Amino acid sequence: xxxxxxxxxxxxxxxxxxxxxxxxxxxxxxxxxxxxxxxxxxxxxxxxxxxxxxxxxxxxxxxxxxxxxxxxxxxxxxxxxxxxxxxxxxxxxxxxxxxxxxxxxxxxxxxxxxxxxxxxxxxxxxxxxxxxxxxxxx
Length: 138
Description:
Elements: H1 3-27, H2 32-53, H3 62-87, H4 92-99, H5 102-114, H6 120-136
């Protein structure tokens, strides 16, 4: 198996654990902003450790800083929305499959913006993924 696939599978499990801990917090009726601050602080801390471990300067062009900021804003809005959905009584087994349709948004945008090839295999795979999420969320 090649490195990108191994990393993607690792991210799958790590992301699943992250969302499980979010659900655990919401099930325990935590204050969303307080929970989010601690969550974000540790993401920031991990990013700083990564910079130090890699012995790399912090370098980012103004354009990429804006793109990173937009990613952060949309990411924060997504996290807060997921947490509110669960805290308001949504079941993780329904909320998370619906949220995972975000992959379809990323694939469509990659096709439109980066002109990535859209093959029949990719369309069928995306369709199967969307179908499985719909079935899981019922």
